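Notes to self after the Tuesday call (sharing in case useful).
The group wants a holo model before anyone commits to mutagenesis around the pocket. I volunteered. Ligand is beta-D-galactopyranose. Logging inputs and output together so the record is complete.
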Amino acid sequence: MTDVLRPDQRTAPAGRRRGWPPRLDKIAFGGDYNAEQWPPEVWSQDRQLMRQAGVTVATVGVFSWALLEPEPGTYDFAWLDEVIDGLHEAGVRVCLATPTAAPPAWLAARHPESLPVTRDGVRLGIGARESFCPNSVHYRAAAVNIAQQLAYRYGEHPALALWHIGNEFGSHVGACYCAVCATMFIEWLQAAYSDLAELNDAWGTTFWGQRYGAWNEITPPHPAPMGVNPAQQLDYRRFSSDSHLACFIAERDAVRAITDAAPITTNLMVTACQNLDYWRWAPELDVVSNNHYLTAEAQSSYLGMSMSADVARGLSGGTPWLLMETSTSAVNWQPRNIAKVPGELRRNILTNIARGADGAMFFQWRASRFGAEKFHSAMLPQSGTRGRIWNEVVALGAELARLDEVRGTTVAADVALVWDWQSWWALELEYRPSADLGYHERVDAFYEALWRDHRTTDVVSPLGDLATYPLVVVPSLYLTTAEAASNLRLYVEGGGRLVVSYFSGIVDAHDTVHDGPYPGALRDVLGLWIDEFHPLRKDESVELDGGTAGRIWSESIIVDGAEVISRFTTGPDAGGPAVTRHRLGSGEAWYVATALDVAGLRALIAGALPTSALSPAPTGATTGAVAASDDLEVVRRAGADASYLFLINHGSESASVNASGIDLLTGRAHDSSVPVAAGDVVVLRERS
Ligand code: GAL
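Result:
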């Protein structure tokens, strides 16, 4: 196998990205501008209101293919000329989207085979968006063509700041199962494996007599009478992610061949989209951009916003990235679309800026009156300029302008969290030891524990550079390659503190169990082995000495070099190890064998952190005295000349932090203690 997990494909090659768009020379603030939904009379009002709100950039054209190319090879750019020229005159930069997420009806009419097919064999229709198979030659050629036409027409336009290819690749149609994809899958496999014997071996096809005697016998993982080979499913996910990436690259390269004036991106959905392996995508983007929408009903929904921002920064290798889309208030697609409370929009956006975004944009500028998204909030909502949201948007635009000096600075992280799409895929295939195992569940719990301790987290790939972090957490890295295991081991030997949760290090890239006993990939580094998994019943919990409790998981651990820090006192493994520590080289590898709650994880992390990282406390507080509630978000961005402490109080109590400097939002100077009222935000330029 040559094509799946090569280390050089998992991290961004240095210097390859062109980086932040030079023409976005202020903090980017704006949104998707679907001007085509409105008569031209509205456009001048839009421009005037954009100026009023401090909008610096607008994304145009995202779904406008049918208007730009009403018939194949016939173009109408007049309306877009007017929109782009108008924005330019108004001093608003343009993020120009290729409209290829919404193929025109003529494509499906002429080439019905360009429509995607679901796993159940249903060919999807038109009338929505993303109605294309990523491997359709007809789609690909037409998409590249319209991208080229846009590049010829607008490539050197002075307003053009950034190219935005397609939209949220793979979000609705993660994988297509049409006949073309079936053939392309075989070609992908032929490139990935040296011969059929290697594939049979990697897929473990002696199981259930699945051995293939010829390449053309292999199919996509169609529904079958029983669970389909997990290695086949994983390769189909890789193939599908690569297929979408090939669409992006084809358009990107077509644009790049015509014009080099602006960087090129596409909007990722880093914590919401399971379908694409963004560690492979990120190096292909000039600048990383991310879409994140709150899970509005979740308690502390802001945690998801913070985590998404940290993953985006991780993909960006720590360089400035762009929040391409979020909502000003409610969305329209959740079961109950809860509106944001006053001040929540401001906190959400400043969370992203704190965590390394140099811009924040929305779906969308003006709320649609028709179509599926008319109940979605916007910068200019259905209530127009009379409502609360408009006032909050205008105030936010003014505040972002005050933060301009923060641009280009980088986030100072305290710890790292290992995140991996392939492990997410593999862990959530069928026939796992418990239906309660979930990748996001553990990642979210560890992330929250770190967040509530005011520790800023970098998100890294399993093959990422870990050396600088005093602590690295590894939640449920079920799929752990030998390369990843060796990366973790080197980190510990070199003095790092590693905290690994249960169900990590179990299988390789093909869902084959590493040589037993569990956890084969991490046995040496953790200094233990597992005799048997003992998943818990629904709602069952087990107690640990020290007073914490765990859910979901228990297992019988035999230590082999590790020391026992804490034992189960109840449940199937009562008396056995629950938390262990293995000293290795000059570092330590900790292991936790159950789903501790956030409080339990906070205690565990406090134990695992080196004393030097415990006090003075992390990034957030210069003195270590974060006299703050655990609803206070504390993040520092630092540059050559100054550092900026973002204090975002998501709680209902006021908080304070020992620090000094000037609040860029109010101009107020603080000498030693910085109060942050409930719901408020302070951005302190710190006194050096
Ligand atoms: C995004 C998408 C936008 C809009 C938005 C609604 O996923 O890119 O076009 O549909 O969701 O929340």
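Two things stood out.
Confidence is low (pLDDT under 50) at residues 1-15, 615-626.
The first helix runs from residue 7 to 10.
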